């Protein structure tokens, strides 16, 4: 299938079909006055690569395999699963008029992938960009194009074991990234549903009420209450009763208390959710992360596809001067259980229970980047180990042969792109870029069958037989810190 952009194209060019990438570029350039996107410099990419490497390492440690999916999906498949968030979806259109949209998250494409491939058991991770027509707040890491890092477990298993592992994954990653103290909030959609049903809220209003309740970490209860009454049509009496529950938070004691609650005991759904929540807390205790977990009944997660346990991690006491607000508002990781989503893509409605977690890379990046700037630490943007240099003119051929040997041996090496670079300029390049070693060749070294190895930081030099150069470089790179430089 060939795609063209839904935006206006000059008539003279309409016969030339535009690639999807160009359509997406046009979409952003024409519809994002504040962009909501960004470029990343080499220095920033060093930080981002470290973040991704930490996250991927954790995903692989837990046995996940990776997949990839198209950046766009059929629009109707997306609109059915995001509820009130659907208004943030970016639309595209192909030449035949089929409606397409840029992916809003990685969860719905994963569910579609499982259904299309008839997969019933899978532990996967996926790292890719997603798109949301949201109001960008770049200083806080909120963009219209951003990267998500997802870990999901699909399949029918004993209750709460996969859920506990997803929370363990979240805890491991946030601990390893050292973003500061954090708290993981956990709730259960079935408990919320039971609370709402107990006080007369019809099921048809549950999802939209959850979207309102999900704002409670950003606005006051009075504002949430007013929206539920005035916009969602829920009676003030019911909202008052609901408010007595959704403002509660605690641990196992709270769970046990609610299990004995005479009002909630009328809801089988709520009791099932509470029993599973109790089991989950027992598993989290075994995993050693219970001290950073709280049962928070205000947590709702606004997406329609969540069906069971839901959770998010928030930072505590993280104040950044350049943000001028606390980063404890909003989450840096979130997820939950969505047992019915795969069935919406299966012609026979076959269910595949799923649970997952998504790491908020952009918010985490903004924190780590700021901390790096405040520490004034210098970071290298390349991993070059060796610069191949010449002490005299007319040694281009020798430098090219030598650097080729180093590359073939797996050594990360560079040379300046001049026939006759000045020797001091070559050394200065090493100091500026942090290359630890320089290999220097000249007439005397060539006549003696050696090369000169120089540590740029200490300026110590030693002659090494040419045939032992690669061995010596590897030995030094194993022993010495990356600040060392090698010269020939």
What does this structure look like?
It is a single chain. The chain has 488 residues and is of the alpha+beta class. It is built from 16 helices and 19 strands. It has a 9-stranded mixed β-sheet. Strands 16-15-17-18-19 form a 5-stranded mixed β-sheet, with helices on both faces. Strands 2-4-3 form a 3-stranded antiparallel β-sheet. A hairpin with a 4-residue loop joins strand 11 (319-320) and strand 12 (325-326). The protein is elongated and about 95 Å long.
Uncertain spans: 1-33, 319-329, 481-488
Largest sheet descriptor: 9 strands, mixed
User: Tally the helices: what do you get?
Assistant: 16
In which range does the helix fraction lie?
25-40%
Rg on CA atoms, Å = 28 Å
Strand order in space, largest sheet = 1-5-6-14-13-10-7-9-8
Structural class: alpha+beta
Mean model confidence by pLDDT: 85
Beta strand count: 19
Overall geometric form: elongated
Q: Which percent range describes the beta-strand content?
A: 15-25%
- CA distance, first residue to last residue: 55 Å
In a few lines, what is going on in this structure?
The protein contains 16 helices and 19 strands. By secondary structure, the chain is α+β, with helices and mostly antiparallel strands.
């Amino acid at each position: 299938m060939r795609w063209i952009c839904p935006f206006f194209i000059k008539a003279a060019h309409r016969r030339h079909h535009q690639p999807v990438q160009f359509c997406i570029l046009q979409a952003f350039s024409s519809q994002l006055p504040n962009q909501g996107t960004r470029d990343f410099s080499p220095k920033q990419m060093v930080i981002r690569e470290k973040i991704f490497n930490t996250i991927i390492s954790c995903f692989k440690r837990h046995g996940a395999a990776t997949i990839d999916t198209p950046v766009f999906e059929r629009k109707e498949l997306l609109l059915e699963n995001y509820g009130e968030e659907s208004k943030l979806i970016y639309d595209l259109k192909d030449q035949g008029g089929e409606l397409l949209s840029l992916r809003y998250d990685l969860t719905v494409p994963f569910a579609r992938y499982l259904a299309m491939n008839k997969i019933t058991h899978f532990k996967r991770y996926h790292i890719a960009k997603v798109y949301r027509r949201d109001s960008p707040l770049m200083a806080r890491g909120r963009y219209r194009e951003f990267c998500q890092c997802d870990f999901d477990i699909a399949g029918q298993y004993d209750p709460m074991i996969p859920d506990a592992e997803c929370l363990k994954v979240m805890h491991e990653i946030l601990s390893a990234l050292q973003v500061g103290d954090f708290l993981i909030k956990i709730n259960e959609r079935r408990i919320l549903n039971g609370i709402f049903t107990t006080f007369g809220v019809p099921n048809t209003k549950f999802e939209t009420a959850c979207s309102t309740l999900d704002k409670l970490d950003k606005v006051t209860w009075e504002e949430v209450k007013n929206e539920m009454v005035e916009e969602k049509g829920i009676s003030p009496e019911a909202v008052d009763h609901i408010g007595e529950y959704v403002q509660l938070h605690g641990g196992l004691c709270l769970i046990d208390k609610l299990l004995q609650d005479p009002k909630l005991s009328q809801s089988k759904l709520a009791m099932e959710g509470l029993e599973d929540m109790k089991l989950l807390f027992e598993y989290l205790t075994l995993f050693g992360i219970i001290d950073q977990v709280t049962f928070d009944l205000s947590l709702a997660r606004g997406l329609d596809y969540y069906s069971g346990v839901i959770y998010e991690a928030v930072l505590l006491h993280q104040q950044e001067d350049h943000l001028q607000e606390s980063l404890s508002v909003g989450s840096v990781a979130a997820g939950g259980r969505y047992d019915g989503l795969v069935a919406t893509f299966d012609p026979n409605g076959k269910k595949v229970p799923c649970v997952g977690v998504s790491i908020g890379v952009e918010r985490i990046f903004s924190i780590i980047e700021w901390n790096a700037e405040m520490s004034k630490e210098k970071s290298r943007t390349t991993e070059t180990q060796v610069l191949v240099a010449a002490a005299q003119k007319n040694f281009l051929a020798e430098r090219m042969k030598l650097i080729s040997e180093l590359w073939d041996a797996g050594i990360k090496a560079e040379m300046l792109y001049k026939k006759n670079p000045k020797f001091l300029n070559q050394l200065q390049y090493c100091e500026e870029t942090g290359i630890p070693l320089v290999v220097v060749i000249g007439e005397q070294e060539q006549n003696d069958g050696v090369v000169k190895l120089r540590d740029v930081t200490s300026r110590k030099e030693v002659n090494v037989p040419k045939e032992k150069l690669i061995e010596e470089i590897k030995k030094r790179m194993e022993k010495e810190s990356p600040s060392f430089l090698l010269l020939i």
